[in-house]
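>> Question from a student workshop board

For tomorrow's exercise we were told to take the sequence and the ligand below, predict the bound structure, and bring the output to class. My setup keeps failing. Could a helper post the expected result so I can at least see what it should look like? The ligand is flavin-adenine dinucleotide.
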Amino acid sequence: MKQELFFDVIILGSGPAGFSAAIYAARGNVKTAILDISMFGGQPSNYLELENYPGFSLIGGFELMEKFEEHADKFGVEKFPMVEIQSVNLTSEVKEIETLDTIFKTKTVIIATGAQAKKLGIAGEEEFKGRGVSYCAICDGAFYKDKVVCVVGGGNAALEEAMYLTKFAQKVYVVHRRDEFRADKIVCERAMQNDKLEFILSHSPVEIHGTNTVEKIILKDLKTGEHKELEVNGVFPYIGFSPNVDNFNGQLNQNAQGFIETDVNMQTSVQGVFAAGDVRNTPLRQVITAAADGAVAACNAVKYIETLETVNV
Ligand SMILES: Cc1cc2nc3c(=O)[nH]c(=O)nc-3n(C[C@H](O)[C@H](O)[C@H](O)COP(=O)(O)OP(=O)(O)OC[C@H]3O[C@@H](n4cnc5c(N)ncnc54)[C@H](O)[C@@H]3O)c2cc1C
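>> Workshop helper replied:
Here is what the output should look like for this input. Compare the format with yours to find the bug.
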């Protein structure tokens, strides 16, 4: 028999959005729990350091997330790491999250489950992740001063990130599998005017090589089948992001890529369900924007709870 636990706010995901929501909700004096399918801390716990979180000119990702967690602890947030979620029902007035041993019941849910960069799926990609393979130019671009890097992709994000990388790198290759870019005309025009960019169309990446860090990428010419090598210090795949929404698909309005649609209050299409951070349809996926979303979501969840009169939890 599963235990039943009752909360005012349940936050799914313990990255910057989740912990920030937890701090604001618990401080708003509502019974708050945070659940994660993994260890706490979200994406920043997995990378070395950040240089752009205000107040810290340089801080380890793990260290920053420990601070978020300690802060949430101070306000008595109940924590459930490594949960195995079996089902999530968001549409009833009392929302339910069922795990292997517990049925969590709650008045509101804040979804802060993040997103993952789509992988190229080629040899060397996993091996050199964090050692030359990066999925975030804004985060890691400054480490490539005067180096040569390669961006893979042909949409707005790929071209914009490639242009951003030219602030640091001496040369940026843009490799795209089609013979024209998918990016908006204005973005393409700006990219074409950038002398540091070199475009390699109708090619796809096949392998990444190096010793300690990335040294070269092998490309395949999709018209002739021939392979060629590019000497590069970094590879930035920009072939899109996918939101972590497996548990909620179909219950909420999502855009074509699956990101959750919210209004400015982080309210989703379902009453009492909010979304924050990388999982939602947002123009910037960074720690500061995720944390800000979490704060907005939590404040509005608390307001929503105050309007409820007869919810039976
Ligand atoms: C390599 C790399 C470097 C980066 N560097 C920087 C940087 O320098 N500066 C910066 O500002 N940003 C950086 N970012 C971006 C930043 O990390 C993200 O924008 C931020 O972490 C998003 O926070 P989030 O809380 O929305 O999601 P996440 O941090 O992704 O956290 C989501 C959490 O939800 C959990 N989860 C997933 N599914 C479920 C589920 N069904 N139920 C419960 N929990 C679930 C996950 O386990 C995870 O812990 C970087 C990203 C990457 C990949």
